[in-house]
Amino acid sequence: MSDSKKDPDMSSHRLPNDEYLKNFSDIKPPLSQYEAHIEANRCLYCEDAPCISACPTGINIPSFIQKIADKNTDGAATTILDSNILGGSCARVCPTEILCEGVCVRNKSPEFSPVKIGRLQRFALDTYQPDQHPYQRSPATGRTIAVVGAGPAGLACAHKLSRLGHNVTIFDKQAKAGGLNEYGIAQYKMVDNFAQKEVDFIMALGGIQLKTQQALGEQLQLDSLRNEFDAVFLGVGLSNSKALGLEQTDIHGLESSLDFISELRQSDDLSQITIGNKIVVIGAGNTAIDIACQSKRLGAEQVTLVYRRGESHMPATSKELEFAKQNSVKIITWARPSSLKVINNQLVAIQFEKTALDTSNNLIGTESFFELPADTVYKAIGQSFLFNCFAGSEPPELINGRIDINEQFQTSLNNVWAGGDCVVLGEDLTVQAVEHGKQAADSIHHHLIWSKGNGDA
Amino acid sequence: MATLKSKFIGITSPNPFWLASAPPTDKAYNVYRAFEAGWGGVVWKTLGEAPEPINVSSRYSAHKSQSGEVIGINNIELISDRSLEVNLAEIRQTKIDWPDRAVIVSLMVPCEEASWKAMLNKVAATGCDGIELNFGCPHGMPERGMGAAVGQVPEYVEMITAWCKKHTKLPVIVKLTPNITNIVTSAMAAKKGGADAVSLINTINSITQIDLDSMAGAPNVGGQFTSGGYCGSAVKPIALNMVGQISRNNETGSLPISGIGGISTWRDAAEFISLGAGNVQVCTAAMLHGFKIITELTDGLARWMDSKGYQTIEDFKGAAVPQLTDWKHLDLNYQVIAEINQDSCIECGRCYAACEDTAHQAIKVEKLENGQRHFSVINNECVGCNLCQITCPVPDCITMVKQPTSKPKQSWDQHPKNPFRSNK
């Protein structure tokens, strides 16, 4: 171990070529027609089904499952898309164990085994190959709307607005649309370029223009968007990685989780990615798990996930945690980073202080320390809203560090709406963002049509 | 341990499970395998006069549940398409090799006394234990004036039965078709003709499915289809009813019955026997699972008999018949209402949907503070129809509970609102 402190082991191509293919193939492959049929027949077609309420987008789950059972897969797909135009990516990334499947009545005695709703949703949408786009646009309203951010919230919002007859322009700072689905989800959860296929499907409706590499606060100003368009929807997400408080300039080895996941997702050749051998991940959300498992699957020898509280407090779901354990990720709880050991600007180890809860349940340090050798530390302790995107413009009001909105998803600015992770409402989940986009679109539509009607009168 | 030894109209077999006249009993090869597996007897697939019939391809089709399980099968096969001489020789040898098993021969020949007489003489020479007259086959043979065409005319049933009784000493079982209005009429005809027993049911006219692409039904024979004979567990309720109606009828109640129709488990067999069958014949279950299913049938039946203290089949034969009656005799003061076991309720709400939309609005749903849903029965509204219990997916979660009543038993026959009541 002492050797590693002197010799950081950063390299690429740690595995034989075929291992990469195996390690990053679909972790939850689609059900076959036969499996889907058998599984669909397990659905009890509940009255006022709890799974519907547990889905942020309110998909009529028993209805689409019954359609699969009836071998009406196209009907099933459109039932899903009617509520959630990003149903395909949600089927892949939703923590179904805490949403629809978590409340399935088949979780109860005597079965303890929910219907595989997520996998059935994926089956329906993967099987769906319509000759033409299932949705048509309403007659043109002549109104224009700017959507900032081509992530799930922005895409859902844009799609709904276009269906309602408005002309939409989506701006995104990245080179591709898709947001988190394209840049922030583990590779093996979103294989075969699915995020882009879904974007293509959404754009195929028409009426939506996509402008990439347009960052708010840089190439774009909120003030000018507000002048140029009848309404603006902000779906800008959380782009600022929270700091550990140990950052020093020019250290090799202290890495941002988002950059790493993005690099993985955009890579054509995973063997070319430089990866450490002794990796420590700080945090215990789904992003932390994604990084830890992907590092392991890239060939890192030791991957340790360190979390300041206990397993029961982890933001990652128990299913994700189980997946980390299956990937031989070592998990250390009740410890927080206290200092970094750096030699010649290269990280070699990280020191932790053990933590505990005091009598008032506050997290405290115990002044007991330990060290882990580490050539790479990924911080995955969450992201925050980057409010300098409003630099030079009148900003909307914020609350708890995110954009404040009312029940209609309106910000404090008269023609600006917001949704997704950049607002504080619900969970930070893809499916939640889709619902925000949907609802904001309805609100924008109502507002524009209402104000137009009012004006004419 | 209970004995399954069976004696049906003088024919003994080690258990009451015979294989019905059908493809599984069409040749010695199958029959030997069946006997090795433990079947008590066989009814050899129907023999007819030369020349033997020609069958079509394809021949079977299925009715499946939504989850893919076979509920029923239909077939358009004719009687044995093997030569009469080969069949007779095999039957003779089979009886020599398996003397303790029942071998019955099913017969179907044209409606002429000479034809029956000739056939009976040939069959008797095989040493078989009895004959079964196939008056039921609903496809192909009726077009030639045989099978169901005969079974649907009581006078023909009686006449041919009488011919057979005249020309052979073998016990005669008359196999009845369900494709009639009243099974008792057919059973009476058989009895009048001197039948030793009836067996029922034969298959039911059916179309199992239409291929919505080709618009042809199944089994598909070169793009065309025809009605086939339906069998398998789907027909069990119809068969049980017909057996029960013969058993409870004063004139036919003493007629021995070989029960047939969708017997797939030991429980089905026990039900047929409790409604008066002296033994049972099985086909579809064997066709779907193979002859090994006999192990499950005999083991289950014997264990159940042990649990009830029945030592022989006779001990519970017909035990359900006295309780089978006409609607007008049912007690109008008997009342059950549903009760939901809250500990096993999984809150799916199926009972609520069924009762609220299609029955008596007798189930109440409340949202509890912990987010759970509480389904309960509104006792005053519940008529005891059983629908909630039927739709509930959890075993024993909903039970129908008998309500105390101070009123004496009163049937429609006795009810003051019945203008034709018998005790006016």
From TrEMBL, chain A:
Its cofactor is FMN. It comes from the Bacteria. The keyword Transferase does not apply. It catalyses: 5,6-dihydrothymine + NAD(+) = thymine + NADH + H(+); 5,6-dihydrouracil + NAD(+) = uracil + NADH + H(+). It is an enzyme of class 1 (oxidoreductase). One of its GO terms (molecular function) is iron-sulfur cluster binding. Keywords: Flavoprotein, FMN, Oxidoreductase. It holds the Pfam family Fer4_20. Residues 34-67 form the 4Fe-4S ferredoxin-type domain. PROSITE patterns: 4FE4S_FER_2. Involved in pyrimidine base degradation. Catalyzes physiologically the reduction of uracil to 5,6-dihydrouracil (DHU) by using NADH as a specific cosubstrate. It also catalyzes the reverse reaction and the reduction of thymine to 5,6-dihydrothymine (DHT). Heterotetramer of 2 PreA and 2 PreT subunits. PANTHER family: DIHYDROPYRIMIDINE DEHYDROGENASE [NADP(+)] (PTHR43073:SF2). This is dihydrouracil dehydrogenase (NAD(+)). The lineage of its organism: Bacteria, Pseudomonadati, Pseudomonadota, Gammaproteobacteria, Alteromonadales.
Automatic annotation (TrEMBL), chain B:
Heterotetramer of 2 PreA and 2 PreT subunits. The keyword NAD does not apply. Residues 336-365, 373-403 form the 4Fe-4S ferredoxin-type domain. It comes from Parashewanella spongiae. Gene3D superfamilies: 3.30.70.20, Aldolase class I (3.20.20.70). Its EC number is 1.3.1.1. The lineage of its organism: Bacteria, Pseudomonadati, Pseudomonadota, Gammaproteobacteria, Alteromonadales. The gene is preA. SUPFAM superfamilies: 4Fe-4S ferredoxins, FMN-linked oxidoreductases. Keywords: Iron, Iron-sulfur, Metal-binding, Oxidoreductase. It holds the Pfam family DHO_dh. Involved in pyrimidine base degradation. Catalyzes physiologically the reduction of uracil to 5,6-dihydrouracil (DHU) by using NADH as a specific cosubstrate. It also catalyzes the reverse reaction and the reduction of thymine to 5,6-dihydrothymine (DHT). This is dihydrouracil dehydrogenase (NAD(+)).
